[in-house]
Amino acid sequence: MTEKQIDRRGALRERILAAAEARIVSSGASALRARDVMADAGAALGGLYNAFEDLDDVVIHVNSRTLGRLQAALTRASQGLENPTEALRAAALAYLAFAQANRSLWSALFEYRYASGRRMPDWHLAEQAELLVHIVEPLRGLRPDWDRDTLLLRARTLFGAIHGIVSTSMEERFVGLSAEGLASEIGAFVDVIVAGTVVPAGRPIS
User: Fold this and answer.
1) pLDDT tens digits along 92-105
2) 3-state percent helix, strand, coil for the chain, nearest multiple of 5
3) Which domain of life is it from (predicted)?
């Protein structure tokens, strides 16, 4: 492939990703259709397969871009915060704010149904795992006695809990919280988790 062909392919990929992202924002990931995306990108339907494996591959790359923005938002929120409790609370509230501001793209990370049996590429799984750093590091500050496996397990559990609160509330499930009280309740939830995690004064770390 010549340099000119590589440049053309790269430009086509960007147009397809921009078109798919815009469609997800306007109509949701479940309504995404390859024909619509390619029409918006100004290319023939067959051009999709010159740039990506298939529509699922396009969504994976759109989700990758969304994860990058989410990662940046969490980093900005907790930057310079040395207190573990403050860092956890900031990350949780930043996650909520991102979900509220980017609802369709955020939902695509969790709701899009890929082809049955499709295995996510390792690079995309690594991107997902990087989000846990914003929980693992504060937890390490709270419980330096926990080993790596325990930290990762507790970080996944805490992420799942916060995500569940955000998800049920944004979907307006009957157990969800109102938009007005959601941020304060997530902050209070983090405080409860921290209180149960910190070793009480006088008790030896085990």
Assistant:
1) 999 999 999 999 99
2) 75, 0, 25
3) Bacteria
